[in-house]
Structure formats: structure tokens, C-alpha cells
UniProtKB/TrEMBL annotation:
Protein name: SIMPL domain-containing protein
Species per Swiss-Prot/TrEMBL record: candidate division WWE3 bacterium CG08_land_8_20_14_0_20_40_13
High-level lineage: Bacteria, Katanobacteria
GO BP field: DNA damage response
Xref: InterPro entries: 26kDa_periplasmic_antigen, SIMPL/DUF541
Transmembrane segments: 6-28
Amino acid sequence: MNFSKLPLQAMILVLFTTVIILLLSYLFPWRNINWGNLTYSYQKSVTVSGMSEKKEANQVASYSAGVSTYNDSKEKAIAEVNDKISAITKAVKDFGIAETDIQTQNLSIYQNQDYVYEGDRQKYKPGQWNVLNTVTINLKDVKRASDLATLLAGSGATNVYGPSFSIEDTKEIEKSLLGEAINDARSKADIIARSSGKRLGEVLNVAEGGTSSPYPVLKADYGRMGGGGSVPVEPGSTNIQKTVTVTFELK
């Protein structure tokens, strides 16, 4: 501000106002004012894991049956494999397997490349055609697993794998295990709380882990079994596990 251009009365007013403000600032009891305290606090909590498990009898037996062949003629190789797969599929359906439980797993058609020499040079020459067709089969009555394995062993399939056992639907079991896993976590958290002179409050967070249900897979070399006897199979059970991570408030 250029004071030289202000009228005398205006200058006196500005100076007077400034003096008053300075006096008030000096005389005002600033120290007697309670401004309060700014503090940072965190919520006390404890985080623990919980687990629950249960064994359930297996409900489904899964198999894989395939036919593979080589032939100089692509068409003959395909026809041979198709005929054998059709025969296997019919036999499985006659056994009582629903069409919805039979599915093509893999189909491959390719021509081998043979190495040949012309003089000192190595070259590739088209070889035989290889055709492979594999189907998967799900059996819902595991008591008949041995019978189906025996059927597949004599079906003309060049490779058979299985059965692998599993549980068809684990949703209801998982719901039950989830509650048990949370209770397991609460029990652990309560021990920790009491040991530190605290008590548990509300659940602050729950993180659900995956469901683990490993099952054994039986792979038999059916081709070496010969023609006698049945394939021994035991369905067994599957151990289902549920894990959670829970954070509890501490009071």
C-alpha cells in the first residue's frame, strides 16, 4: 500500500486500527484457552486362523479310456479308432452310464515324420498316421467301480486310467465346515485374549481360505492284466478341509 497517496485522516485511521489490534493480541489471555489434544489411537485386535475337516465317502469314480492306432492310410486309422471308441461307448452305456457322464477328452490326428538319408543328407519323409481318441467316464455308483474297471480292461481300449474318486457336491459340507472353522478361530483367539488380560469383542474381518479335498488316483496298467479276474478297486473317502483367517476386536 502506498501511504503517501492516502489522505491524512485515512492514515491516522489505519495506524489507530493497527495499534488496537496489536494491543488486543498482547493483552488477550491466549494461555487460558483449552484447545484440546489431538491424539491418534488404533483399535486393538488379534488375528488367528481356524480350520475344520471332515471325511466323506467318495461318490464318483472317474475313468479315462482311449484308443490309439497307426496306419499308412489316414482314413483307415480314423475308421479303426472310431469303431473301437463307438464299441467302448456302447458297452459303457449298456453298463448303465448316462450319456451326460461320457465325454470326449482328447482327439488327435497327426502324421509322423520319418528321417531318411539321401546320400549324405538327412531329410524328412511323411510317415504313418497316428490317431488317438480318449473319452472320460463318470460313474455315480462307486460300488460298481471294480466292475466298470474290469469292463474297460477288456473293451479294446489301448490305454485306461482310473478310477479317480471324488465327491460330487461339497457345497453343504463346506457350509458346515465354515462355521466350525470360525469357531476354531474364536477358541484360539479367546486363549490369546485371556492370556493378555483382555476379552474378545466383535469380529472385525473374516477371510475365507480355499477348500482342500485331495483324493488318491489309481492308475492301473490294464493292458498287462491278461484276461482273468476283476480289477480290485476301493472307493475310500475324501478328507475335506476348510480354513479361515479371522480378526477379533480386543477389549
